Amino acid sequence: MKEDSVRSVERAFSILKCFTLDNPRLNLTALSEAIKLPVSTTLRIVATLVSLGFLKRDDSRSYSLGNEIYLIGAVARAHFRPQQAAFPYMKDLRDDTKEAVSLYGMEDEFRVCYEHVPSLLTMRCVVRVGDRFPLWAGAGGKALLAYADQAVVEREAAKLKKITDSTFTDREEFLKELAKIRTQDYAISRGEREDGILSLAIPIFDREKKASLSLSIAGPSTRFDDEKVAALIPRMQEMCTRISQQIFLV
To answer: Class for domain 2-72, per CATH?
Structure first.
């Protein structure tokens, strides 16, 4: 009975995690396919979530997140220490450079944007809080992955595929890149996930020297070039040390 209860909770959360900024509404079939359960089983769980206010059903028979999720999210956001600690540094960095600054963490098999301060310029990188990206493509993900457990590294290295002409697709070259990041404590991406975008990411370490977060700045390579990136590395590393001290009391 206890195992059945745990399984039901896991399935319920799996359904809630199907909803994203890009997919705020999903029908029953889409949910069933996403969590790989029969429609009848999915319907029972969805009906319970609706009754509790965690999901709501509209006239088109699609579902979206309910008011209870909004309330829980508001509480979580208000007390999310990484975001609170990092935001003042992110805003100062953005104001000085005018480029977009993001804070990432690792969730499941993705890097997730926890906070974002948009560029002040017209041509910019567009990222939203809650967006998910591959761990293996881009500076923000590599800065997290380089310090992850070997099993996680191997799992992600097996996913390598071409997104742009600059994306790592060779496993050995990718592992060398992660090793290089560990020696210098920063990661750079030159168009790995999006053509023409140059990004720099610095890991934010916890007490066990794991990169729990990464601070990233990105912009079009036509104006945000290697020279500007190199000048920012020591400043951002110092920022990340201070953020780490505030969050993890390192």
So the answer is: mainly alpha
The domain spans of the chain are 2-72, 80-248
Distance separating alpha carbons of residues 127 and 245, to the nearest angstrom: 26
d(CA 168, CA 155): 15
Render each residue's pLDDT in the chain as its tens digit; 250 residues: 556 778 889 999 999 999 988 889 999 999 999 999 999 999 999 999 999 999 999 988 899 999 999 898 888 777 767 888 999 999 999 999 999 999 999 998 999 999 999 999 988 888 999 999 999 999 999 999 999 999 999 999 999 999 999 999 999 999 999 999 999 999 999 999 999 999 999 999 998 889 999 999 999 999 999 999 999 999 999 999 999 999 887 6
Fold category of 80-248 in CATH: Beta-Lactamase (3.30.450)
- pTM exceeds 0.85 for this model: no
* Contacts of the segment 203-209: beta carbons below 8 A, 24+ positions apart: 203/143, 203/144, 203/146, 203/147, 203/240, 204/82, 204/86, 204/240, 204/243, 204/244, 204/247, 205/147, 205/240, 205/244, 205/248, 205/250, 206/244, 206/247, 206/248, 206/250, 207/248, 207/249, 207/250, 209/147
